[in-house]
Each structure stands twice: as structure tokens, then as C-alpha cells.
Specification:
The chain is mainly alpha-helical. It has three domains: 141 residues, Hypothetical protein af1432, CATH 1.10.3210; 84 residues, 2-Layer Sandwich (Ribosomal Protein S8, Chain: A, domain 1), CATH 3.30.1370.10; 69 residues, ANL, C-terminal domain (GMP Synthetase, Chain A, domain 3, 2-Layer Sandwich), CATH 3.30.300. The protein is built from 13 helices and eight strands. The strands form three sheets. The protein has a three-stranded antiparallel sheet with strand order 1-3-2, with helices on one face. Strands 6-7-8 form a three-stranded mixed sheet, with helices on one face. It has a two-stranded antiparallel sheet with strand order 4-5. It starts with a helix and ends in a 12-residue tail after the last strand. Pfam families: HD (PF01966), KH_1 (PF00013). This is HD domain-containing protein. Keywords: Endonuclease, Hydrolase, Nuclease, RNA-binding.
Length: 326
């Protein structure tokens, strides 16, 4: 009970679907664009679905909280801008993506410092910053990590274990969950990252063993496992269906992105609408139709979904020329 009391945290996280207020009908019209071209470009660039109705509230829908935050910031900039057109949308989204890297770094520092850890590598801090935008079984990863670290440190102090190893192990135990483009389990991905950045083998072991996939090699590994279980099992901490939903969306996007010539893929509307962005120099118009069919067939075999999935493949070529200055 004393260890659980130490786990109390005041860290605030993002849980809900984002929304942005449009100041007028005119601005809403500019966001939509002629024939819907602006809203299509925005969704293509961000991977976030815009929902606009009779009210002035614009809802941004995506299972990926980082994408949603990028889209929200980009939309806020565009609303203040008189120029809302495809090229400007692309420019703003790129700009916000760069700003997001700085935000993740600051969030990573804040989370690490709340856990009592300083001077971590920048790339590790950016990954930790993603905790704010990630859930595990419905429990926000930043809150879970801070809570687990405080519990783990309290236990380590009580029994005389290595507090520094436990502190670092608790902070980094789920880092594999925010690593992108890594095959295998989140434990494998986390271990690979920690080895890459030269973390002590004792810390790597706590991450490697925190799901009991391997026998515990130290009391510190046992403490990290116990603290993880306490934080995750307290009443109201977790809600499994949300995590299952995210895994299904990730799987759908992974299948689509595995095809040659696909630049990116986004799952909308609970996976019922999948939009594929192809590399125009690798996929011609004839191949585009075949590719959409092949992806749909693969999704039929490998993806979990209800109803039907509509696969839309998008190939865009844009030529831009500038006149001589007068």
C-alpha cells in the first residue's frame, strides 16, 4: 500500500478526440476547398480524418494521437491563414512535423525528470515524449510509466535493491511500444533500442524480463515486473478493447505499407476506409488499380475487421514552374 501511495502522479495526458473551432462559415468553406480538394489534401498529408458538420466545430479523428496533434496544430495555423490551398497545406504540415520533434523532446525531458532521471540521449527522450500520446490497454503510457517508476523506487528502497537500475528500468520498460517500423514484440524492440544506445546490461535485462518471457536474473527485474503489474492492475487503470482497436488499425496499415511502391497508408473510420499513397515514379496508373485490388485481397485474408474495407489508392503528380521575376 505504501508503494502504491508513492505511485500517485499529477501528470496530464491527452485522451480525447481533438477538435478545432472554425470562426465562420467562410473559413469552413476554405478548409473544404473547391470540390473538397483542400480537405482531401489535408487528410492525405496528415493521415487524420476531418469531420465537419453544421456546427463550427471541426473534429479530427485518428487512432494515432501524435498524428492527431500534428493535424490539430496544422489546422489552427491554416485557419489563421488567408491562403488555404493544397501547396500551403503541405507546407504547414511539414512545418508542424518539425515542431513536433521539439515538442516530443520537451515532453520526454518532463517525463524523465518526473521519474528522477536526467541527461538521457536526445533520441531516447523523443521516444519517451511519445508516451504522452500512447495508450496501453487504455492506460496512458506516460502516466503508467511515472506511476510505475515511483512504485518501483519505493520497493527498491525498502528492500535495499539498486534504485538506479530499477528507476531506469521502469522508465524504459515499454519504450518498444513507441518504436516504429520494428518487427517482433515491443519487448524485443525496446531491448534493441537500449542496446543500440549502450544502456547497462542490468537495465536491458529489466526490460527484457518484465513480461516473464525469460527467467528473472535479478531482484531489480522482479521489482520492475511487480511495479508494472501494480500500476496496470489497479481498478480503472486499463481498458483492453481500446488497445485491441489500436492493434487492429496498426495491422491494417502495416499490411498496406508492405506492398512495393506504397509510400504511406492510413486507416480511417475504424479501418473501414484505407487510403494508400503511392510513389508516382514507381506505380503508374495501370498498376494503381491492380495494387488497390491486391491490397484489398490481402486485407481480406490477414486483417481483423467488421463489415467491408474500402481501399483507395492515390497517385499524385504535380508540376510546378516559376515565372521570371519582373
Amino acid at each position: 500500500l505504501d508503494a502504491m501511495k508513492h505511485g500517485a502522479t499529477s501528470y496530464t495526458a491527452e485522451y480525447t478526440v481533438s477538435s478545432v473551432e472554425a470562426p465562420s462559415e467562410e473559413v469552413k468553406g476554405r478548409i473544404i476547398g473547391a470540390g473538397g480538394r483542400n480537405i482531401r489534401t489535408f487528410e492525405k498529408e496528415t493521415g487524420v480524418e476531418l469531420e465537419i458538420d453544421e456546427t463550427n466545430e471541426i473534429r479530427l479523428s485518428s487512432f494515432d494521437s501524435v498524428r492527431r496533434e500534428i493535424a490539430k496544430r496544422a489546422l489552427q495555423i491554416l485557419i489563421k491563414d488567408t491562403r488555404i490551398q493544397p501547396s500551403r497545406i503541405e507546407e504547414v504540415v511539414k512545418q508542424v512535423n518539425l515542431q513536433m520533434a521539439d515538442l516530443l523532446l520537451e515532453e520526454g525531458k518532463r517525463i524523465a525528470e518526473e521519474c528522477g532521471i536526467y541527461n538521457l540521449p536526445t533520441d531516447i527522450l523523443k521516444l519517451i515524449g511519445r508516451y504522452k500520446f500512447r495508450t496501453s490497454y487504455g492506460q496512458n503510457l506516460a502516466i503508467h510509466t511515472i506511476e510505475e517508476t515511483k512504485i518501483g523506487v519505493a520497493i527498491a528502497q525498502d528492500i535495499g535493491a539498486n534504485v538506479d537500475t530499477v528507476r531506469m528500468g521502469c522508465l524504459l520498460h515499454d519504450i518498444g511500444k513507441v518504436v516504429t517500423d520494428e518487427e517482433g514484440t515491443h519487448v524485443d524492440a525496446g531491448v534493441a533500442v537500449l542496446k543500440k544506445y549502450g544502456f547497462p546490461k542490468e537495465v536491458v535485462a529489466t526490460v527484457s524480463e518484465h513480461h516473464e518471457d525469460k527467467p528473472f536474473s535479478s531482484s531489480e527485474s522482479v521489482i520492475v515486473w511487480i511495479a508494472d503489474a501494480i500500476s496496470g492492475s489497479r481498478p480503472g487503470a486499463r481498458y483492453e478493447p481500446h488497445e485491441d482497436y489500436i492493434k487492429r488499425m496498426d495491422k491494417i496499415e502495416e499490411i498496406a505499407k508492405s506492398f512495393e511502391g506504397v509510400d504511406n497508408a492510413y486507416a480511417f473510420q475504424a479501418g473501414r476506409d484505407v487510403r494508400i499513397i503511392v510513389k508516382p515514379d514507381e506505380v503508374d496508373d495501370e498498376r494503381l488499380t491492380i495494387l488497390a485490388h491486391e491490397i484489398a485481397k490481402r486485407l481480406e485474408k490477414e486483417a481483423e475487421y467488421a463489415g467491408q474495407i474500402k481501399v483507395t489508392a492515390i497517385r499524385e503528380i504535380r508540376a510546378i514552374e516559376t515565372t521570371a521575376a519582373k
